[in-house]
TrEMBL record:
Pfam families: MMPL (PF03176). InterPro entries: Acrflvin-R (IPR001036), MMPL_dom (IPR004869), Mycobact_MmpL (IPR050545), SSD (IPR000731). This is Membrane protein. It is found in: Cell membrane. It is a multi-pass membrane protein. It comes from the Bacteria. Belongs to the resistance-nodulation-cell division (RND) (TC 2.A.6) family. MmpL subfamily. The keyword Transmembrane helix applies. The lineage of its organism: Bacteria, Bacillati, Actinomycetota, Actinomycetes, Kitasatosporales. Keywords: Cell membrane, Membrane, Transmembrane, Transmembrane helix. PROSITE patterns: SSD. The chain crosses the membrane at residues 182-202, 209-227, 233-253, 274-300, 306-332, 373-391, 517-536, 548-569, 581-600, 632-651, 657-685.
């Protein structure tokens, strides 16, 4: 593979104009497709195989006019002190809101508007009422005029002294990432300048990463409605694509500078960079792709599509690093080197035979080798302590109760809870597949259950062979009591009585994620373990990599629970409202973080493997690996953390939580696991770290990440490390 990548990189360098034009053309084509496509919707949400989904499917069959994906809104009106919504003046204002919605702007997108006086949507004290509005399309498909009409519907009532708040997903908008994303890119730029000492070299990874992400995200936007991709999909692809795109280009450029220091011609240096560092990029990218594509195991279409879309962006990042980066290096010439470094790079100005000064990576590796047990214990105990909150993890899907108190959705949620009870915000929908007798029998049984506040009479369909029963629990939607009620209704019913609704869907979704976690973990870790065995020709090194990952991801989950569920340092990260952790967060972090964590494992340990294969002792090989790779790996980790941290400023809690979780996970994995625990374990294992049974060695194909076959192909032996050291210490 190294020989193929060498030819690819060298060819891209020599035909740089054609390669650059090809990528620019792809960017313009994807951009044109995105600009021509209609705005992406929120994406349909389904959980195949669950009772809640079966009920939704039954509703679509028996109640043709009812759509599960249509947006909903609740306009909550509360009378001032001493007044009631049934009084003439407040009642006139409420009826004005109803008539305004039915005949105003956006009425063509409205399926129904319920008059609270007819639907009896008035609290017992007659101070609170709500208007239920159902739309024909999802919240993301509502026009600006429709959404604005909804927001303005209660203005006159507010002017008359009534409190009017609006809840529901009709006010849903595309998530905004804020200025944090730009700040993250700026931090990445500063890190690159410090690492390379050259503006040209620093700008290359940023430029190529932005081109790759532009193509990926634009393609997702162009195909969003065709493939039913949610609006969050492009945000995830941008988050991961930026991080890996910058990192992969960083490693190629760094190795190119090393090859120039060896005195290679520029096209030869580009080819060798692609053949050596490019091999590591390919395998690092494969681990990320495996982790993302593996999300299909969960069997939730939305999550599967998110994983495949993000994996496509990663594939683009790998191709950009292997072709566009060498092409851009051809335009940059030797300007990728810091000004005034020529004499240092090629040995001028140093006394003959002088030992180069040890860099930071070398000094740190020697420190770990002197105290491996102490470093290992400190790393494991520290991450273990941070992981403790993960034992109190509570999962759920966010609703309006998780919104900041400054939003109208949250205030509407609180008004409904105060006026009608905490369970009113999480009604259960019981779908009866049978006649009126079965529906009446079901109502009688549910009324006798603990935890039930209200049971509405059954609403039959036109054919009379199905009915809907609405059940209001006594407790809030995310409580354990409400979950028990759902299970009690289901356990006492047959296959012809199904429980659905947002609360039941949340419970089924959480259960689905829990059930899929172990199979998903086994698949992803197993495939990546085999991949790393090919790369490192070892059994213990991949095993150590997998165990280190599990430690870092559990610690990251502990940090997420502490901040987003317990509220520790919440104000620092813009967390206005604590609550359960999203059900998809654990399995999502396992997938994404595993792929990203293996990046550092591949880039750092392949240098150690290369040194060991070329005759160095295990301890010295660890030092050599850190000498050549530590500075670049640290820079790559800081860049990735900066990019992910930029998404903490997003308006949507899901994006904010993912950005924080990935940022802390990369920090733990790169700086504690890979930089401390890995060298400590390798120091303790010695030669055993690189042990591979002979029979397995004969079976496994040699992928040659170290580039040994490339050197044989070029008719030369491995070069000495002296000139590389001069570059690293320059």
């Amino acid at each position: 593979m190294a020989t193929f990548l060498y030819r690819l990189g060298r060819g891209a360098f020599r035909r740089r104009r054609f390669v650059a034009l090809l990528w620019v053309a792809l960017l313009f084509a994807a951009g044109f497709g995105a600009a021509s496509a209609s705005a992406p919707t929120s994406g349909s949400f389904s959980i195949p195989g669950t009772e809640a989904q079966k009920a939704f499917d039954l509703l679509e069959q028996r109640f043709p006019g009812m759509t599960a994906n249509g947006a909903t809104a609740r306009i909550v009106i509360k009378a001032p002190d001493g007044a009631k919504v049934t009084d003439p003046a407040p009642k006139a204002q409420v009826e004005k809101i109803v008539s305004g919605l039915k005949g105003g702007a956006g009425a063509d997108q409205i399926a129904s508007v319920d008059d609270p006086y007819q639907s009896k949507a008035i609290s017992q004290d007659s101070r609170t009422a709500y208007i239920s509005t159902k739309y024909k399309v999802s919240g993301m498909e509502l026009t600006d005029a429709t959404r604005e009409a909804l927001k303005e519907s209660g203005k006159d009532a507010q002017a008359a002294g009534l409190t009017v708040e609006i809840g529901g997903d009709a006010l849903m908008t595309a998530p905004e990432t804020g200025s944090g994303e730009v700040i993250g890119i700026l931090i990445a730029a500063v890190v690159l300048v410090i690492t390379f000492g050259s503006l040209i070299a620093a700008g290359l990874p940023l430029l190529t990463a932005l081109i790759g992400v532009g193509i990926g995200v634009s393609s997702i936007t162009a195909l969003a409605n065709v493939l039913d991709l949610g609006s969050t999909t492009s945000t995830l692809a941008m988050m991961i694509g930026l991080a890996v795109g910058i990192d992969y280009a960083l490693f190629i450029v760094s190795r190119y500078r090393v090859e120039l220091a060896e005195g290679r011609e520029r096209d030869e240096a580009a080819g060798r960079a692609a053949g050596t560092a490019g091999s590591a990029v390919v395998f690092a990218g494969l681990t990320v792709v495996i982790a993302l594509v593996g999300l299909a195991v969960v069997n939730i279409p939305m999550l599967t599509k998110m994983g495949f879309a993000a994996a496509g962006t990663v594939v683009i990042a790998v191709l950009v690093a292997l072709t566009l980066v060498p092409a851009i290096l051809g335009f940059a010439g030797k300007k990728v080197l810091p000004a005034g470094t020529k004499s240092r790079l090629f040995g001028k100005g140093k006394p003959a035979g002088a030992e180069p000064k040890a860099n930071g990576g070398t000094r740190w590796a020697r420190f770990v080798l002197r105290r491996p047990v102490l470093v290992l214990l400190a790393g494991v105990i520290g991450l273990g302590a941070i992981a403790i909150p993960a034992g109190k993890l509570e999962m759920g899907l966010p609703d309006d109760g998780a919104q900041p108190v400054s939003t109208s959705q949250r205030r509407a949620y609180d008004l409904l809870s105060d006026g009608f009870g905490p369970g009113f915000n999480g009604p259960l929908m019981v779908v009866v597949d049978g006649d009126k007798a079965l529906a009446d029998k079901t109502v009688d049984r549910i009324k006798g259950l603990d935890g039930v506040a209200v049971v509405t009479p059954p609403m039959p369909n036109k054919a009379g062979d199905a009915a809907i029963i609405n059940v209001i629990p006594k407790d809030r939607p995310s409580s354990t009591e409400t979950e028990k009620l759902v299970h009690t209704i289901r356990d006492g019913s047959g296959d012809d009585v199904l429980v659905t609704g947002a609360t039941a869907m949340n419970i089924d979704f959480s259960q689905k994620m829990n059930d899929a976690l172990v199979p998903y973990l086994a698949l992803v870790v197993g495939l990546a373990f085999l991949l790393l065995m090919l790369v490192f020709r070892s059994v213990l090194v991949p095993l150590k990599a997998a165990l280190g990952f599990l430690l870092s991801v559990v610690a990251a989950l502990g940090a997420v629970v502490a901040v987003f569920q317990w509220g520790w340092l919440g104000s620092l990260f813009g967390v206005e409202q604590t609550g359960p952790i999203m059900s998809m967060m654990p399995i999502f972090m396992v997938g994404v973080v595993f792929g990203l964590a293996m990046d550092y494992e591949v880039f750092l340990v392949t240098r150690m493997r290369e040194a060991y294969v070329h005759g160095e002792r295990p301890g010295q090989a660890v030092v050599t690996g850190f000498q050549y790779s530590a500075r670049v790996v640290v820079a790559a980790a800081v860049i990735m953390i900066a990019v992910f941290s930029g998404f903490i400023g997003a308006s949507e809690q899901m994006v904010k939580m993912i950005g924080f979780g990935l940022a802390v996970a990369v920090f733990f994995d790169a700086f504690v696991v890979r930089m401390a625990i890995v060298p400590a374990v390798l120091a303790l294992l010695g030669h055993k770290a690189w042990w591979l049974p002979k029979w397995l060695d004969r079976i496994l194909p040699n992928v040659d990440v170290e580039g040994e076959s490339l050197r044989k192909h070029l008719g030369e032996s491995a070069h000495g490390p002296d000139k590389d050291r001069e570059l690293v210490n320059a």
